Amino acid sequence: MIKKFPYVYSQLTRHGTTVWYFRRGKTCKRIKAPIGSSKFKEEYIEALTGGAVEASSVVIHKGTLKWLINQYQHSNVFNTLSANSRRNYNGHLKRLIEKRGSLPLHKVTQSFIQNSVDHRSNKVASSVLFLATMRGLYKWAVERNLVKSDPTVGVKTPKLKTKGFATWTIEQIEQFRKYHPIGTKARLAMEMMLFLGLRRSDVMRVGAQHIKDGVFSIQTKKTGTQVTIPIAGTLQKCIEATRCTGEVLLSSPSGKKYASEESFGIWFKNQCKKADLPNQCTAHGLRKAGATIMANAGVSSHELMAMYGWSKLSMAEVYTKEADKKKLSSNAIKALSKSI
Predict the structure, then answer these.
(1) CA–CA distances in Å: residue 214 to residues 35, 56, 210, 211, 306
(2) Contacts for 177 with CB less than 8 Å, ≥ 6 apart
(3) Among 18, 88, 192, 242, which one has the highest count of C-beta atoms within 10 angstroms of its own C-beta?
(4) CATH of range 60-161; options 3.30.465.10, 3.90.1150.10, 3.40.630.30, 1.10.150.130
(5) Burial class of residue 207 (count of CB atoms within 10 Å of its CB; 0-12, 13-18, 19+)
(6) pLDDT in tens, 44-101
(7) How many Å apart are CA 259 and CA 65, to the nearest integer?
(8) Is 170-329 assigned to CATH 1.10.150.530?
(9) Total-model pTM
């Protein structure tokens, strides 16, 4: 592999000619242009980012926003992010290069970032993701002394008007169970996400190697956190009753691993439709349901962090504080009833 071009490998053909390939994960693409040429760089960036790049855009001037982004996209820090995060970040970075790539780095100020966020305020989720992208870029840049300060510090985003993915109700869980009996892949998928608190990207990877002596353990794909959880009796029954072949418990209808978390999500969404559940019932909503049920049962914030692999206490407190509100309001009503 060439250090200047990560993921590029040479191969000698039967005719004695050296050819070059871009290989990352399941992606393998031949780079036909001569190595070191501007066309080679163009094809390389296209393979790296997953999109076509104009030839003129390959010219990169040091000290510009485009130069900094290019350095970041070639870094190990960026390329060890999850595929989903890279895809989302690349979308914003590509548009930023197209519009303001030639901007000198000293002109990328807090005001510039705040204005960019405000410009996206009609799409709150987009503004939040844009700021997360820029924070990742500048955290990396500051740590490597490529810039003197982080212009994202103090930048604020508009508040999300929704609470995100809808949380499954107990009734919806039971409705799914009624339609998909124990022994089906759909039932196993639902119980695994509910009892193990896994994201789509993790539940589709679970195999026998992750279970030992009644305990489940896996390193999560998104955060890299090691999660270890005892397997509940309900889930154990589903695992034992479901016929599983291959290296994962939840293989696709063709018997192979799901190609992506999106393809797994589409399959699970179809299982929800078969059970006549509303459109808002998603895989992530099950994860929220499990956290909500446990918080209402008195599970602490730190216990939820261990269960779900969260690195920030604030994530767990979203659920425990809501549960505390219900308990406090219930106690207040009881006190009022006794007083009058």
Answers:
(1) 53, 58, 10, 7, 17
(2) 187, 190
(3) 192
(4) 1.10.150.130
(5) middle
(6) 877 777 655 444 444 567 889 999 999 999 998 998 887 778 888 999 999 999 898 8
(7) 34
(8) no
(9) 0.55
